[in-house]
Every structure is written in C-alpha cells, then in structure tokens.
Amino acid sequence: MAAADMPTVLLVEDEPAQREVLAYNLEAEGFRVVQAADGEEALMLVEEVAPDLLVLDWMLPNVSGIEVCRRLKMNPETRAISIIMLSARAEEVDRVRGLETGADDYVIKPYSVVELMARVRAQLRRTRPSTMGVMLEYEDIRLDTESHRVYRSDKVLKLGPTEFRLLTTFMEKPGRVWSRDQLLDRVWGRDIYVDTRTVDVHIGRLRKALSQHGGEDPLRTVRGAGYALG
Ligand code: CA
User: Fold this and answer.
1) What pLDDT does residue 107 have?
2) CA 73 – ligand 1 centroid, Å
3) Fold (CATH) for 3-130
C-alpha cells in the first residue's frame, strides 16, 4: 500500500505511556501515526500532515484539546477531519461540550483500547471508505478498493496506479471539487515534489480510461478551482 493510500491519524496525548500504547495499536491497524504532546504542536501538525482523523486528549498543556477541536471545526479547510475526544471526566456536561465543539465521537478514560480502535475504524469507514476495503460506486462506475478493480457498466476498465488513486479520491466524495494541490497531497503524497501540471496529465489519462468502453466523461473541470466527479 502506498503511503498516500493509508489513513493518517494524528494522536494528541501528553501522557507518554498512554501515547505509546495508542500509537502501537493504531500502527497495528495499518494507519500512519503522527504524534503530538500538546495542543500547539497538534495544530501545527494538522497543517503539515493533513491527517484524516485526530485522537485528541481533552486535558493538554498550552492549548487544550477542546480548543484544538473548536479551531479545527471552525476552519472550513479542516472541518472534515474526524475528531475523537478522550476525556477523564465523565460528567454529562463535558460530553455535551465535546459534541457542541463539533467532536465526531467521545471516549471516556479509562477506555478499552479495543473499543477505541473500533471507534477509529468506524470514523474512517465514513470519511475514507477506500482505505477500509469498501466497494465505491458512482452511477455505472464501481471501484473495488480491495482487489483494485474498476468496472464501468460491468466491464473491467484498465487503469494505471495513479489513475486508480485519482479515481478513488473522486469516488470517495462525488461532487466535491478538488484543487490540483489537494489532489497532489492525496494521490502523490506530501513528501514528493510533483508539478501541478502532472495532475492535468493524469486527469486526461483517467478520462480516457473511463471511456475506453464508451460512456460519457463523468469528470468535470471547474475553471480556476480544479476537478470534480459529477
Ligand atoms: Ca492529558
């Protein structure tokens, strides 16, 4: 699996022993794990690694977990990132505050690691279905994320690996407009330098591949913004 296909989990916990246990378990699930020990570091790393999900402790030095959550959910660029809050305080008022802040899920300490991993998987199945072994469908196109096969009207389509990753990205969120930079991050990964024109080249190839047995071009060029499926 290429690094770009793996969900990235940002683990924010100031207690080193707990962080270590969680990092170990998240890595065992097959996720890329990035760790932060306080809220400030967490906010910085969100920009840097564009995580799919945060496991976020409530009580943190510098900037609290709840403040990190609030800021990420207020920002349109980071709003879609799933956040699972961890808290030692079980009071109902905390639970409500956690949800009002926009956290997607809430786990009370001491938690079962098995339970927490199940919650993480549930969030990622919703937001990154292609990484969780799911069949994606859009109109007459079907994409099997496990066998890496693509079908259009039940005919197998031949696709290069980059075109496959591009199509997966589009099919995860039909209708969403992706900028060239966002596609570069998602499909090629952040660590590789690729010219944005490369995106156009592969979009061209993807369009051709999708129509190899006929059918209309489902991709839309959005002037000045990027590309969308449908
Ligand atoms: Ca803490």
Assistant:
1) 86
2) 21
3) Rossmann fold (3.40.50)
